[in-house]
Amino acid sequence: MKPRNLLYAQSGGVTAVINATAAGVIEAARMHADSVGRVLAARHGILGVLDEDLVDCSGLDDAELLALRQLPGGAFGSCRFDLDAPADNPAQFDRVLAVLAAHNVGYFLYNGGNGSMETAIKISQAARARGYPLTCVGVPKTVDNDLEGTDCSPGFGSAGKYLATSMREAGLDLRAMAGRRGRIFVMEVMGRNCGWLAASTVLARRAPDDAPHIVLFPEIPFDETAFLTRVERCVARLGYCAITASEGIRGADGSLLIEQGHDLSGHVQLGGIGQWLARLVHARLDYKYHWTVPDYLQRAAGHLVSATDRSQAEAVGWAAVQYAIAGRDCVMPGIRRRSDAPYRWEVEPVDLAPIANQERRVPRSFIDADGFDLSPAGLRWLGPLIEGQAPPPYLNGLPDYRLPDCPPVARRLGPYCG
Amino acid sequence: MKPRNLLYAQSGGVTAVINATAAGVIEAARMHADSVGRVLAARHGILGVLDEDLVDCSGLDDAELLALRQLPGGAFGSCRFDLDAPADNPAQFDRVLAVLAAHNVGYFLYNGGNGSMETAIKISQAARARGYPLTCVGVPKTVDNDLEGTDCSPGFGSAGKYLATSMREAGLDLRAMAGRRGRIFVMEVMGRNCGWLAASTVLARRAPDDAPHIVLFPEIPFDETAFLTRVERCVARLGYCAITASEGIRGADGSLLIEQGHDLSGHVQLGGIGQWLARLVHARLDYKYHWTVPDYLQRAAGHLVSATDRSQAEAVGWAAVQYAIAGRDCVMPGIRRRSDAPYRWEVEPVDLAPIANQERRVPRSFIDADGFDLSPAGLRWLGPLIEGQAPPPYLNGLPDYRLPDCPPVARRLGPYCG
Questions:
Q1: Which chain A residues are within 8 Å of B204, Cβ to Cβ?
Q2: By CB count within 10 A, which of A111, A169, A215, A249 is most buried?
Q3: Are both B118 and B166 inside the same structural domain?
């Protein structure tokens, strides 16, 4: 069989290790030159496919691949865009397939989260309906760790390592600055529905009184009275209290706290949840407060990636290519955990259909009985994912990140006006 | 002369390298056992002196001193507290001197910023007025870099390295996520009156289009129209725009933007300046936005200190002890720059009187003509300060910070009720 080209694209929020997956894909494809011709990447995910905006990754040398593996952010650009339902917009799928055909793409690898797996399925179905030979493989990625079908999601371990490190460091600062009046610190972390990243900050704690002292999960309805009581007790004991808050914590009625449309003075509350909580504590208990919103920093910190996470990110890239050339359509490489300590894992194919658009929340058994902390089982599960350092090279005091130099692929079709 | 004890204390906002200064003090004192007896540290700065809350650092072994050098935050606790004017509250100074006398303290080293230098002067004057033999030495420290009398302040280089790294990483994330609609990212950094930390983020840029694209200094009055024009042009060219904003940017009338008491909907604005700017751009130009507030993270990031900064932090600790035993009262070790490239510096004594309570702002020559960027001279000055990595040891995937185990010193006086 004549080799066919492979098209890789990145989708959704990017991570510190998604490009390690890209590097894994490119390296694995090279090992299978009998099956895979060129490795193309779409710019900005499926949008780049629709726009026929492609680059050719085949010319990257070993040094460039190493640099790609160490580069945070999405080297080829990402997008937040879902294809329509195939029945609603067949022209959109005609276009996707026309672009794939124009570039002799036989393998499509979509590197993303829950929604991206649905995109991979839709394209597979559209190809089949049109008689176009194509193998679609999903490749997992998300700092939110909310993908089903895999023990953990590449990207999460590095974000968790960054947040746990930051909480440990901020906790030392807070401890130094605490005075008689009492002081709190709130760290607002990503996680609209799932508290995995909030949970990861608990790894910062070595002794019972270390930060964080309270963790607010989106999985647990926010109980203001219980929260304030706990803050007060902590400050009475230590003089300070460090709090991790998922951006998506909700009231008992299930609505996002931050969208409940009120603040302490009766105005519409516009800020993030970290600030809101800090002000709540200040208003009720009169403590001084600081709050941080790491935002992009928590998912872009290439200088502090987890070596474990990066290995897994690369491994799912390699595996996805194996599945593709074996014709395993609509699967995703999932990580299966073999043991916690020593941590052992392997990659196995997982069907996309049952996992697309699902969301894996922190199980109740991973959260302590009172709902403000991780349980020992949760800690045991999380610990291995942040292990190992994989620092980038430095130049002039800063990480020496380099973007891959991949030439654009000449367009063969007219513009898309969908 | 019989050796007398040395009392060291930390004051003001802590840094990632202030404990390297403490380690330098302790090591240098050991080399001069003929002059210095025990090295004591006050808990929470001058408050610990008033409370007679002291610990003994003399027993730390080499491994503990190395750990101290790598520990962010203030190992002995800090405070934000100014002594009264000596004429207004002589009892307060009686107490300070009583505590110093009770513990045979002949050398007082105060490690802090502008206000702390004033404290050192006041204590020196009080000692002289009471005929108590004491040498008071200030030791510079501040992430804000606003101390006069020194080319740069220990603590600043590490915070700058952290922020420049974070801006480079967030810029890669932003680039990946940019879409047709346009997207901005705002990083709010410390600096109420001085834009040094904001300036440091410019080091992240290697190519003209790299982040940050706009820097807002407290030294330059905020011009909303010019700012929005610049944002719009940047987004038109790249699809995105990364902005660094000092927390202390001001309007043309000199008032803090964040305290001007308005937001876009007419309500009192409660958030930080990063969020305010992001919403301003969103309201006027309809771009998507993200914003980060690193807060404590920027000054506590022991995992990403500048080796240059840490060397300087340690050197000023060593020098302060030399000055103290030489009887050089009311001086501070300042860093004098000998050359930019190669970067050469030395430590020299600087009189405290002219520098206490002063504030060193970013000179106009370090800011570009249009006021939204650093000038080449500013870049040349900043570059060396973030050079070199000095990572801590890691254990279980996280920095293995260890607090020094210094026994409390038995109290010899009654409680202070001042």
A1: 398
A2: A111
A3: no
Q: In chain A, which residues have their Cβ closer than 8 Å to the Cβ of B55? A: none
Residue A408, in any domain of the structure? no
- Please, what is the end-to-end C-alpha distance for chain A in angstroms? 34
Burial class of residue B133 in the structure, from the number of CB atoms within 10 Å of its CB (0-12 exposed, 13-18 middle, 19+ buried): exposed
Q: Are B234 and B285 in contact (CB under 8 A)?
A: no
Which of A47, A51, A169 has the highest number of chain B CBs within 10 A, making it the mutation to test binding with B?
A169
Same domain, A135 and A168: no
A158: nearest Cα among A2, A320, A55, A310: A310
Q: Say if residue A11 is in the same domain as residue A147.
A: yes
Q: Give the mean model confidence (pLDDT) for residues B380-384.
A: 98
Q: Which residues contact A89 (CB under 8 A, 6 or more apart)?
A: A83, A418
Assess whether A143 and A176 both reside in one domain: no
Q: Of B85, B94, B75, B90, which Cα lies nearest the Cα of B9? A: B75
Q: Name the domain count of chain A.
A: 2
pLDDT at position A269 is 41
In a domain, B417, yes or no: no
Cα A122 to Cα A128: distance, rounded to the nearest angstrom: 10
Q: Are residues B142 and B238 in the same domain?
A: no
Distance from CA of B293 to the nearest CA of A (A): 5
ipTM, 2 dp:
0.97
Which positions in chain B touch A80 (Cβ < 8 Å)?
A: 177, 179
CA distance A393 to A403: 14
Choosing from A56, A84, A94, A144, the catalytic residue is A144
When CB atoms are compared, the residue of B47, B73, B203 closest to A173 is B73
CB < 8 Å to B152, chain A: none
In terms of domains, do B292 and B354 share one?
no
| B183 and B109 in a common domain | no
Question: What CATH code is carried by the domain that includes residue B133?
Answer: 3.40.50.450
Interface test with A, best of B162, B177, B394 (most A CBs within 10 A): B177
pTM over 0.90: yes
User: Do A139 and A8 fall into the same domain?
Assistant: yes
Does residue A320 contact residue A288 with C-beta atoms inside 8 Å?
Answer: no
Where does residue B291 rank: exposed (0-12), middle (13-18), buried (19+ CB within 10 A)? Answer: buried
- The answer to the question of residue A407 being in a domain is no
Which of A252, A267, A300 is the last residue before a domain boundary? A300
* Domain coverage including residue B215: 156-300
> In the A/B pair of chains, how many CB contacts fall below 8 A?
207
